[in-house]
Amino acid sequence: GLTESPSATYDCDAAASRQCPQYFLYYMHGLGHGIGLDVHDPGAAPSRNATTRLVEGSAFTIEPGIYVRENLVDILPNTPRNRALGETIRAAVKRYANIGVRIEDDYIVTATGVDWISRAPREIAEVEAEMRKPFAAPLPRNRSMVEWYRATAPRESR
């Protein structure tokens, strides 16, 4: 399975010229993004390359996750290190194939700090209690509201 260690890497390419952290195999998107009228509003969330600071009113999400693709071992570039890694993780990949979990937390920067605005269950007991509830179909879309959103231009385009 996944090993927590700075040396837990795999070869990112068949030439073995680049090493990637092992968690890239199970987590293939960024840690978060800005949220707003455009679901992935730019500039509102920290990133590896960001040089700007969050400001009051910034809304963003932090969404760690883990995803185990059934073909994970098969898509590793063919190198001796990756073949050895594949044999090490094969049983775990088979056991957990095609599962995915993402915890998405949403935040707004205020004058006094950061407010956590999402309240989805996150503790095991909370998630299990939520899963025991009967399924409730989503409400039908309000077509006039959808059209209003489509006609509303993002701030930077005004």
Concise structural overview:
This protein is α+β, with helices and mostly antiparallel strands. The protein is 25% helix and 20% strand.
Largest sheet: 4 strands, antiparallel
Helix content: 10-25%
What is the element string, with H for helices and E for strands? EEEEEHHEEEHH
Number of strands: 8
Q: How many whole angstroms does the radius of gyration measure?
A: 20 Å
Query: Can you tell me the number of structural domains?
Result: 1
The rough form would be described as extended
As a percent range, the share of strand residues is: 15-25%
* CATH architecture group name: Alpha-Beta Complex
* Cross-sheet strand order for the largest sheet: 3-4-7-8
Written account of the structure:
- By secondary structure, this protein is of the alpha+beta class.
- It has a single domain, classed as Alpha-Beta Complex (Creatine Amidinohydrolase).
- The chain is 25% helix and 20% strand.
- The protein has a four-stranded antiparallel beta sheet with strand order 3-4-7-8, with no helix packed on it.
SSE topology:
Blueprint: E1 9-11, E2 19-21, E3 32-34, E4 59-62, E5 65-68, H1 72-75, H2 80-96, E6 99-102, E7 105-110, E8 113-116, H3 124-132, H4 143-151
Antiparallel strand pairs: 1-2, 3-4, 4-7, 5-6, 7-8
Keywords:
158 residues; alpha+beta; Creatine Amidinohydrolase; 4-stranded antiparallel β-sheet; two-stranded antiparallel ribbon; 8 strands; 25% helix; extended
